[in-house]
Amino acid sequence: MAFSLHFPPTLGLAFFLAASAGLAWAAGADVIQARRDGMKTMKSEVRILSQMIEGQGLVDPQTAVRSARSLGDAARAIPGLFPEGSARPPSTARLAVWADWAQFTDLARQLSDAADDLERAAASGSFEDADDAFVRVTRSCRNCHRAFKED
Q: What is the pTM of this model?
């Protein structure tokens, strides 16, 4: 099975990571737009990985490793993109993000852990482990969105 070669949207990821480090605030960037860009980056990486896992193209372990790494980096940046008071429109974040910060950050950690496992599995060529880790990735995304994102 082979995957088509895709490159992660590095510009969105770079902006997302800069925001997580506090650089976006220093540069005057809007945190809501930064997190929206980061979520788009993660969605793109999940799509790339899903196509590979479902056999919809060429399997490219190097691309899978890069996408999983990008996803893990973006997941680790999530808490920094939700400062108190950033629930204003056009944000679709529920107030529950800040009311249940421990659960919110735990879900972000679960996502980053699953992405790290996916990266290791892709690097080792273990498709079974990659599939298991990918299920955990998508479950983490779904659980977080159900609890903390407005429809």
A: 0.79
